[in-house]
Amino acid sequence: xxxxxxxxxxxxxxxxxxxxxxxxxxxxxxxxxxxxxxxxxxxxxxxxxxxxxxxxxxxxxxxxxxxxxxxxxxxxxxxxxxxxxxxxxxxxxxxxxxxxxxxxxxxxxxxxxxxxxxxxxxxxxxxxxxxxxxxxxxxxxxxxxxxxxxxxxxxxxxxxxxxxxxxxxxxxxxxxxxxxxxxxxxxxxxxxxxxxxxxxxxxxxxxxxxxxxxxxxxxxxxxxxxxxxxxxxxxxxxxxxxxxxxxxxxxxxxxxxxxxxxxxxxxxxxxxxxxxxxxxxxxxxxxxxxxxxxxxxxxxxxxxxxxxxxxxxxxxxxxxxxxxxxx
Amino acid sequence: xxxxxxxxxxxxxxxxxxxxxxxxxxxxxxxxxxxxxxxxxxxxxxxxxxxxxxxxxxxxxxxxxxxxxxxxxxxxxxxxxxxxxxxxxxxxxxxxxxxxxxxxxxxxxxxxxxxxxxxxxxxxxxxxxxxxxxxxxxxxxxxxxxxxxxxxxxxxxxxxxxxxxxxxxxxxxxxxxxxxxxxxxxxxxxxxxxxxxxxxxxxxxxxxxxxxxxxxxxxxxxxxxxxxxxxxxxxxxxxxxxxxxxxxxxxxxxxxxxxxxxxxxxxxxxxxxxxxxxxxxxxxxxxxxxxxxxxxxxxxxxxxxxxxxxxxxxxxxxxxxxxxxxxxxxxxxxxxxxxxxxxxxxxxxxxxxxxxxxxxxxxxxxxxxxxxxxxxxxxxxxxxxxxxxxxxxxxxxxxxxxxxxxxxxxxxxxxxxxxxxxxxxxxxxxxxxxxxxxxxxxxxxxxxxxxxxxxxxxxxxxxxxxxxxxxxxxxxxxxxxxxxxxxxxxxxxxxxxxxxxxxxxxxxxxxxxxxxxxxxxxxxxxxxxxxxxxxxxxxxxxxxxxx
Lengths: 327, 547
Hints:
- The structure holds two protein chains of two kinds.
- Helix content of chain A is about 80%, strand content about 0%.
- By secondary structure, chain A is mostly helical.
- In chain A, helix 5 runs antiparallel to helix 6 (about 140-145) and helix 5 (about 100-135) packs across helix 9 (about 185-215).
- The longest helix of chain A has about 40 residues, at about 1-40.
- Chain B is α+β, with helices and mostly antiparallel strands.
- Helix content of chain B is about 30%, strand content about 20%.
- In chain B, helix 1 runs parallel beside helix 8 (about 255-265).
- Classes of the chains: A mainly alpha, B alpha+beta.
- At the A-B interface, helix 2, helix 3, helix 5, helix 8 and helix 12 of A face helix 1, helix 7, helix 8 and helix 14 of B.
């Protein structure tokens, strides 16, 4: 018995270490690849700004400033210099605004994190509400409800946002655009993000509820005289929730991606708008920081999901795969 | 899952369509306060100005000329002179000035008692440091000079006493004083000028002497300016010199144009930057005002590359000059707030002549010239010569939003002449690469405060930009440019400037389209007293809000 536990623990430790190693590799590759992609694109933040026809600077004037920022060096040298700084935790200076990249990212991060978390919670609530409704409502209403997720998926994010702003912001005056971080304004921005994210979640929940409802144990529970609501709450909900947990981990990137549009429309300053303006300007250090940040978030979320599944579900125990250790 | 590419593309078309919806919804609400028509200013109150972004940051040498950051700089800082919308140069921090007979030496007499918001004096020493920064910059610290400053002939700036500055140039520089009113030439505290670019990037560390001071800011979101109570040195040209009427001036970043417009319509903000030309009539009928100030500078038009196919041929240049129906452009794309070009510089520039007959719409003249030159119309509807199709690719200027629609119409018009115009849409990030390609036709948007700039940039003489790629091959243009650059008095210079305008138009080196309005402002009827300077910047110093 003691032997089995220690084998399981050492197997688990190996899993943790290998997953961590893979995570670091993913982050490193994300950095290098995006550096190359950004370098291949024409223009950079400094050259673009100085070439504004309004600025009236000569090519020599521009060349001297570009040289100051080291942008005239070969891409490979620039990459090595940037990597050297990156390893020591220095993300550099934004070429566009001259501000430290760390400041820009940490200014934008809380707003986006709050928005994304609120959106995820709202999406979960919406998805559960839809799935529960489909299973408990009479078949007519349930049928209509079943088509709601595909409707949610087919309406573009910005349409939802503009309609919400137009109705609740400008007509009902529930919130003001000029206070984008107020709780009510944040709620509507999060709802804009939550609606498309809730759709696939609801679909997964509905179909796994369908599957569980056809299982023998559900039939047995019903035959023992349990009501529909009781069967649903005590027997079906828990097993059906498992696939949704994986789905949530996959969907965590959606609010981050959708934030570009939602933040733009709602006038919020967040990671999304930071990406938008640094892409537009070719602000390489900021772009790289955001790419690395997203890579870290994805790696962490997947790490947590990967590492928690063997702990939660005995069927996926790591010892089963490690036959060599057992013999 | 949703494809981000499709999403983004439909995002762009969708926002346009939904703008209408947003405006319609907002239309239901009448503005809270009817215009009182009161003309006496009210002290106190807060004004919120919606703008699409402050992305370029706060290194002043990089952003004081921007349409966005430049507006905020204009409220934090002062300039030596004030150039009004007619191009007149008025005293400001420089109370008066003298210049010698050949315009090589200038003496600025400064207003006394002016201070930066950190308490240091705006004295001759501080002004000298600012002039040096504008003229030379500091490339080793990554700080660019001010593009329009007459640096080529700049020699020195010296403080002769606490309130007098003497500036010397190696040759006649009539444009110097006017340039001091350019939005690049903002007065900053010497401590700010000395600081590193990283410190200058922090708005709070930029100290000016303007009517407002920074109160608080959230990077990329909102910037609150607060009235400076001891301010007493506004330019007399504004009709007022005391502290600003507004308690606070708040800039809010709202990127989406339709949301900006609707926010003002719903009464949640007072002024918004840039609306679409086609929305103007409906906004005005709802009691709002839309201002379309024109800046001093070049009109919207094409600079022609005379060295590349097919614009290296005079017949093609003439066909472009006379084949475009500018009246149709005005009536189709724009409202009555836009004006026809009368030359290639804006009508507000004092030296602008009326030479509209040098580039009138004349289909026959355009086609006859091509015909005579051997460009024959073929079955595809376009002209060919020596097996070559007469086609030109142009890119809309990403800095001028209405250019795209205008280019589409021009392409239709030139089809009647037999010229195939290919349209390209290029974003700001890729526009410099496009300019470096030296295309046959390049959209121009350029402001200036003194007509001397024109002489400086058309050819490669005097360190110019050689707009038409003529080098020094056109002797007449060289001579005219030199005469403008070396002119010793403004009257003579105006005469030569007119000569030059006619010559450039006759050679079809520049193809004017319409007088340029690059900065539009939507404001609520509650707001009064906004003024616009020669660069079309809204000035809220004299503005007030009625309650």
